[in-house]
Amino acid sequence: MSTVSTEEDVREACLQLLTVRQRSRAELEQRLRRKGFEDDHIAPVLDKLTEVELIDDQAFARTWVQSRHEYSGKGKRALAAELRLKGVADSVAAEALSHVDEESEELRARELVRKRLRTLTVDDTAAATRKLVGMLARRGYSQGLAFRVVSDELTAAGAATDEYTEDSP
Fold first, then answer.
1. Is 119 found in the same domain as 147?
2. pTM
């Protein structure tokens, strides 16, 4: 990057970043600073791009939540953390997360457990339960939902689940 940047340089860099994927305003600002652009050129460009709706944190958050929930199997807690890292305001994140209802979150958790059960040998139900609950926890699902789904799916798969419950040590 040259030592002197202009708003046009910042605008071009923004458009290149937005061509790859939609980004939050804070994420763009951070990337531009890392590229060495001056703050007094960044703010006016981001303001203009927000005004013409090329930067829209609400749309970004909705798209991010839908995509990561559907394709990566992330739960609400993980999605909220990801949005925080992307610089999305808590109120905007909460609105986007409201589109993931309990039913769709449980359905997605069941799909993940069923998929993992196809490759998991269930000799020890307690060990299988720990592995599956751990997998769901890492993806941001609540402990109660994880235990319920794992118990149901192990039972449906024919494993005895009464050996290990959520309250077990």
1. yes
2. 0.81
